[in-house]
Amino acid sequence: MSAVAILNARLLDPATDYAGPGALLIEDGRILEVVRGAATQVPAGIEVVDAGGKCLAPGLIDIRVKTGEPGAEPKETLKSASLSAAAGGVSTIVIQPDTDPAVDDPAMVDFIQRRGVALNLVNVFAAGAATKNRDGQRMAEIGLMDEAGALYFTDGDKVIANSRTLQRVMSYAAAFNALIACRPADPWLTEGAVATSGELATRLGLSGAPAIAERIQLERDLALVEQTGARFLVDQISTAGALETLARARAKGLEVAASVSINHLCFNEIDIGDYRTFYRLDPPLRPESDRQALIEAVRDGLIDVITSAHAPAPAEDKRRPFGEAAPGAVGLETLLSAALMLHHEDGLELLDVLRPLTHGPASLLGLESGVLAKGAPADLVLFDLNAPVVVDAAKLKSKSKNSPFDGRMLQGKVLGTWVGGRRVF
Amino acid sequence: MTDSATVTDLISERLIPFPSPHFLSAGDLNPPAALGLLDLADAFVDFNRQSAKSLDLMHGRTVVNIFFENSTRTSSSFEIAAKRLGADVVTMPVSASSVAKGETLIDTAVTLNAMKPDILVIRHASSGAAALLSQKVGCAVVNAGDGRHEHPTQALLDLLSLRRAFGDVGGLTIAICGDIAHSRVARSNVILLSMMGARVRLIGPPTLVPGDADRWGCEVFHDMREGLQGCDVVMMLRLQLERMEGALVPSTREYFRFWGLDREKLAWALPHARVMHPGPMNRGVEIDSDVADDLSVSLIQDQVEMGVAARMAILASLANLRGAAR
């Protein structure tokens, strides 16, 4: 493979805390050299990309992506998801196991990853189900799926309500040092809920679940982590109360990571407004005080990973009354632009915004990418920090257009995406 | 009784354009518009008591009743109201047909819209369904109950019943009792009765009153004795057994013991207090037949009669608004 030099860039590398001028030399899909400071002399015969002073960062790693493939391809295929990812500066995606059939055996993990390789766009990995067919009762083949390349294990949006099952899953996974991820949501308190309990939900007549449902379940999950010694990811934390629980667990020395969806960092429950189903999310949108707490948790490192929570839903599933609409939103293509609003509007340092999108997930999942370092995969994103972008859902590359950012102006535009040294956008 | 010609003249004089293109929430009204609708409805009450009950105010207009939830009472009330105004009325049995085949609400709306109705009256089990429909059709939409959100025509007919019983609702203390959490009637009545100057109290067990109901501008009570003291009106709500996701009250007999309205509890309100219920009633659960059937205290039959007149006022005003816009 030929070599490429990206010169005249503003390097942003959360892994090494470097933010400043520099250049990258890429060869055979990997970073051959990182030059900090003024531009370097480039050997003859190398393709040169002039970054024009724009930002160059590790490609984004999105660990929570739903597709329809296999089983519901009209929603989203691995190809359309990969194209969306490339257009959004996301170089690695991890597919959720809630397909049909579910990703609960090594053959399914193998299928997803082979398909990703054949598409030759972005890196595609699978998360395996923690229980067979995500039924919350029978443990799935965690060891074999781990061997086949599954990056972590989760039942996705389904909560493993049976504490004995989760205890066994955690104990068993510890033998493989496998990461288990769980949604913190008490299934009884959240049953049938489409909003967060409170004045807004009662005024709109929507069934709500109390925010405490998240903390209650997290307390249980963390008690089991403490007992079993499992590696654990709190998947989609969304309330201030649960953040306090998480902080206490960290202080006790538990190895617990946490992720948050970009939607819960950008929107609050008021956005539901006039029953707009693009804001029908799971977990539901929370009050502004929770959103602010989540932003602070990203700033101080309590939250390790920001995800797009990409959940495609076609028009027929969204064009329904609020309570009947499918939950979730697409987000791969808008992930970086939306996250940069945390810098522009909420005052987060650029590296603090990028860390949970790159180095955070890479170190959690043991990936080589997510860093601008000699020998690392040349997975990169080039973006204009200040360029305005008006999101037009109809033009998104995802097969489903359910974007809550539709019509919004964001600030920060993806200019190019490289995966393994090859430009894919 | 006023003679026939005078009633028709009165109706014409009092006809007002509806203040909003749709009637989705009690909040679509303002006090002058509500009073205008009540005056018009009063004229319709007189008209409805005549032997000949046919007008041509909506001649040539088409009203479609689309009820995704069963409701004989409200559906019939709207149908009679529209027919007495001279409209062509179609009542769609949707639960049995297209929806069962997987058609979405919006598909249904688009299909109906293509048939060019003037007014769609919708009831649906989901909150916000009427608002969603209103965005997809070119005609006026009347919310006949959406989930646990609102039932604004019920609020207007309750207001009409109260005004006829008390003269003015301003200054009345009205207790809404029972299953507040699941009640669209309560939500619409809180908005409209407060807007018209009444003091509204909410009474029910803590599991059936939303935790933030005190922010609705109402006093909240969990004890009937405390809550009913000084009340002019006791509005009982149907215990929505079908909407309850779990055991929100231990049993209906315990519920009746503490929150069901009987003579003994009614005595805690003011001596002249009147009783209301949006129907259908669970007798012996939220209300005792002894109270419900006593015409000296119960306004329940009046509410049914006022329902037709109030809905005639709403439909005629909406048609009048759309006529003015043409």
Secondary structure topology:
The complex is a heterodimer of chains A (425) and B (326).
Chain A: E1 4-13, E2 18-27, E3 30-36, E4 47-50, E5 55-58, E6 60-65, H1 78-87, E7 90-95, H2 106-119, E8 123-126, H3 142-148, E9 153-154, H4 163-174, E10 179-182, E11 195-196, H5 199-204, E12 208-209, H6 212-228, E13 231-234, H7 240-251, E14 256-261, H8 262-266, H9 288-299, E15 305-307, H10 315-318, H11 335-344, H12 350-354, H13 359-365, E16 380-390, E17 409-419, E18 422-423
Parallel strand pairs in A: 1-4, 1-5, 6-7, 7-8, 9-10, 10-13, 11-12, 13-14, 14-15
Antiparallel strand pairs in A: 1-2, 2-3, 5-16, 16-17, 17-18
Chain B: H1 4-14, H2 31-48, E1 62-67, H3 72-84, E2 88-92, H4 105-114, E3 119-124, H5 129-136, E4 140-146, H6 152-166, E5 173-177, H7 184-195, E6 199-203, E7 219-221, H8 224-228, E8 233-236, H9 252-259, H10 263-266, E9 274-276, H11 289-292, H12 300-325
Parallel strand pairs in B: 1-2, 1-3, 3-4, 5-6, 5-8, 6-7, 8-9
Please characterize this protein's 3D structure.
The complex is a heterodimer of chains A (425) and B (326). By secondary structure, chain A is of the alpha/beta class. Chain A has a single domain, classed as TIM Barrel (Alpha-Beta Barrel). In chain A, 28% of the residues lie in helices and 23% in strands. Chain A has 13 helices and 18 strands. In chain A, the strands form four sheets. In chain A, strands 1, 2, 3, 4, 5, 16, 17 and 18 form an eight-stranded mixed sheet that branches. In chain A, strands 9-10-13-14-15 form a five-stranded parallel sheet, sandwiched between helices. In chain A, strands 6-7-8 form a three-stranded parallel sheet, sandwiched between helices. In chain A, a hairpin with a 2-residue loop joins strand 2 and strand 3 (30-36). In chain A, helix 2 (106-119) packs parallel to helix 3 (142-148) and helix 4 packs across helix 6 (212-228). The longest helix of chain A has 17 residues, at 212-228. The two termini of chain A are 18 Å apart. The mean pLDDT of chain A is 96. With 326 residues, chain B is α/β, with parallel strands linked by helices. Chain B is 41% helix and 13% strand. Chain B contains twelve helices and nine strands. Chain B has helices spanning 4-14, 31-48, 72-84, 105-114, 129-136, 152-166, 184-195, 224-228, 252-259, 263-266, 289-292, 300-325; strands at residues 62-67, 88-92, 119-124, 140-146, 173-177, 199-203, 219-221, 233-236, 274-276. In chain B, the strands form two sheets. Chain B has a five-stranded parallel sheet with strand order 7-6-5-8-9. In chain B, helix 3 (72-84) packs across helix 12 and helix 6 (152-166) packs across helix 12. Chain B is globular, with a radius of gyration of 20 Å. Chain A binds chain B through residues 191-192, 197-199, 202-207, 274-275, 316, 319-324, and chain B through 104-106, 124, 126-129, 131-132, 146-150, 181, 184, 187, 210-213, 215, 245.
